[in-house]
Amino acid sequence: MNTSPRFLAVKAVADELAVTSAQVYTILRTGELPGIQIGPKKVWRIERSKLEEYIERQYGATRAAVEAGDVGTEDPEA
Q: Domain Helix-turn-helix, which positions (predicted)?
């Protein structure tokens, strides 16, 4: 039986991706990461399976960028 929650809060997604909540809000607003808004306060929730799909797409995009020689050499957060 799977005990992980189906939906994740923005903070949990940010922690999972090691980014800020602001960065998660950006990819939600652009539609890059699908999410839903709940209730009158429109709180964002992200389905775990959608997060996993997003991560797989990012791996593919990164792989293509590496093959094309179109990647940075420095981590802007380092």
A: 9-58
Gap between the Cα atoms of 45 and 7, Å rounded = 6
pLDDT at 46: 99
Burial class (CB in 10 A: 0-12, 13-18, 19+), 46: buried
Class of domain 7-68: mainly alpha
Q: Look-up: residue for tokens 């957060």?
A: 77
Task: Dump pLDDT digits (tens) for 2-38.
Answer: 688 999 999 999 999 999 999 999 999 999 999 999 9
Give the pLDDT of residue 71.
81
